[in-house]
Design a protein that fits this description.
heterodimer; A: 308 residues; mainly alpha; two-stranded antiparallel sheet; two-stranded antiparallel ribbon; 12 helices; B: 270 residues; alpha/beta; 4-stranded antiparallel beta sheet; globular
């Protein structure tokens, strides 16, 4: 049960990463690998502030802003200096590796002895259950796990709502249109370049915020924690799309979150059944490959069936 | 008023593929004038429209719209003064967004876009009423993705979008060329109605001599990157489609003459 709760919690935390990837990948068709660096950047900024005794909320917001700066850099490299999308992301991601080491001061920062969001979550859990532990459907669970899940769920809910509201404003709609039809939105007076920069800012802000929450939940920040995270985000976005299958913003956002949680649950089960943790990234990559190719294959099969 | 002074543009300059697309085009178009631009393929008529819209910056010359010098303005900035309809019906609309969203985006053409709602209730009603004036039954499909509509329907909506806020200049780039004859006819009539209703200054490129002869109050014929002929006023009123076609044939004959003359010279001297 603890495993299940933790899979849900991590799935929801990474849903924020997936929302960021939704913005870069679904809205702009921009495979933004900056995410690998900015999730660690968020964790690093939050961790180093927390160990200096900064309030967890302030530290998490600072992580969001740090991610925005990373996205700003990628956006500027791409739009102002005309560097290829992927390469802009790679440059910023690589630079962030050194920056993260500087911010953290070492390759790993433990957070077990400092006040973090998880401390709040534990108090929340204790207040709700009345004890340090409780039973859920007959299983014993700790107040900390229950509190974390509820808190993270609330955070994701609020952020998703804000994202949905944003995408229905004049500015947010112009951003969606920039990804949908550049020529059209330019003719309507919107600078597509500015939209890409702003979009990447928000996307990487969300990714870094996810990193900050993840570090606080698992109790440490590590300079390696970002590796392959973009693929994780893509997997979530793709699953979400397959599940929901429409282009309406609200549905796509909810799909992305469900996708992230579902993917984490699948992985947790696979690990439980004996998948070697070292194979995790390989399996994720193969999964995303499959999800990208499958629609194409299906169409071929359909065309074949129609022809014969 | 639109003023073009000595516009020059060369693509791929300095390479074997160099194209001198505009070779010193000067035009002055009065307010409320509806100008038809015709010309053979590669004559520079679409390039001229794109130069005015700011799709690229000209090498030389000046562009003035409503007495503002916009020569160095990027495309999105000029959009505050210009409404555009493209040849490809897919170019003017965002396919995954709804009809209402597309129109609402156009309703704010060239203005600052902030955190106000795109589709407040009041806006939705205005949009539906304006769409109903098209008489195409689209007001019942306001919340469908615009990509599910036909080319003709999308082009009609694009026309409505381009003129939602009155533009200082309306640019139509062969906007009926990709449509079936019936839809094309419908769009032509809609164009005529909107342009005359709002007295829009309009620059329309077309391949159809029929359209050229029946629409507008002035015809500009382009050839090899410059203005070949300009029919306005009384001159324009006497022009028929056959006259334009004859003029085209003359151009073609001249070009063939040029080529054969060059060949003769080559044979004689090289």
């Amino acid at each position: 049960m603890t495993l299940l709760l933790s899979a849900w919690t991590i799935g929801l935390i990474l849903a924020l990463l997936a929302l960021g990837v939704y913005i870069s990948y679904r809205v702009f068709k921009f495979a933004d690998i900056t995410a690998d660096g900015s999730i660690t950047f968020g964790a690093a900024v939050a961790a180093s502030m927390l160990t200096r005794g900064v309030n967890p909320v302030t530290a998490s917001v600072a992580a969001f802003l740090a991610g925005c700066v990373a996205g700003l850099c990628t956006g500027i490299l791409h739009t102002r200096f005309k560097i290829n999308q992927l390469l802009s992301g790679i440059l910023v991601m690589t630079a962030l590796y050194s920056i993260n080491l500087h911010v953290m001061g070492s390759s790993n920062v433990p957070l077990l002895s400092v006040t973090t969001i998880t401390t709040y979550a534990q108090s929340l859990g204790r207040w709700l259950t009345g004890h340090d532990s409780a039973t859920l459907l007959g299983w014993p669970v700790s107040a900390r796990d229950v509190g974390s899940l509820i808190l993270v769920f609330a955070i994701v809910l609020v952020i998703t709502l804000i994202a949905w509201l944003f995408f229905n404003t004049n500015l947010g709609s112009a951003m969606r249109a920039s990804g949908d039809n550049e020529q059209m939105i330019r003719a309507l007076g919107v600078s597509v370049e500015n939209m890409i920069v702003l979009g990447l800012c928000i996307a990487n802000g969300l990714v870094a915020f996810a990193g900050a929450l993840l570090a606080q939940y698992q109790g440490f920040a590590d300079v390696q924690m970002g590796i392959g995270m973009i693929v994780w985000g893509l997997a979530s976005v793709i699953i979400g799309r397959a599940l929901i299958g429409t282009d309406s913003v609200g549905a796509a956002l909810i799909g992305t979150i469900i996708g992230s949680v579902l993917f984490r649950l699948i992985i947790a089960l696979a690990l439980r059944w004996g998948l070697n943790p070292n194979d995790l990234k390989l399996v994720t990559a193969i999964f995303v490959f499959g999800a990208l190719v499958l629609p194409m294959l299906m169409q071929k099969v359909k065309r074949h069936a129609a022809a014969s | 008023m639109l003023q073009l002074r000595e516009l020059q543009k060369t693509f791929f300059a300095g390479t074997p593929n160099q194209v001198r697309a505009l070779r010193g085009v000067s035009l002055q178009i009065e307010d409320g004038s509806f100008v038809i631009v015709i010309g053979t393929n590669g004559s520079g008529k679409s390039t001229l429209l794109n130069a005015v819209a700011g799709s690229f910056l000209v090498d030389r010359g000046a562009i003035t719209i409503a007495s503002k010098d916009v020569t160095r303005w990027p495309e999105h900035r000029r959009a505050s003064m210009i409404g555009r309809v493209f040849q490809n019906p897919f170019s003017g609309t965002a396919p995954t967004m709804t009809v209402a969203e597309n129109l609402a985006l156009a309703a704010r053409r060239g203005t600052k876009r902030g955190l106000g709602r795109l589709l407040p209730a009041r806006m939705q009603k205005t949009l539906r009423d304006r769409v109903a004036t098209l008489n195409m039954g689209l007001e019942t499909r306001m919340h469908n993705p615009i990509g599910t509509l036909s080319g003709g329907q999308r082009q009609a909506l694009t026309l409505l979008m381009a003129t939602w806020r009155r533009p200082d200049l309306l640019l139509l780039d062969e906007h009926t060329a990709a449509l079936d004859p019936k839809s094309a006819d419908q769009i032509v009539r809609l164009t005529e109605r909107i342009v005359s209703e709002h007295k829009l200054t309009t620059l329309m490129v077309t391949h159809s001599m029929q359209q050229a002869a029946t629409l507008g109050d002035r015809i500009v014929m382009m050839n090899q990157g410059s203005v070949h002929a300009d029919y306005a006023g009384a001159h324009r009123r006497h022009i028929r489609a056959e006259d334009l076609i004859r003029r085209f044939d003359e151009i073609r004959r001249d070009e063939r003459l040029d080529l054969s003359a060059a060949e003769l010279l080559r044979d004689a001297y090289v």
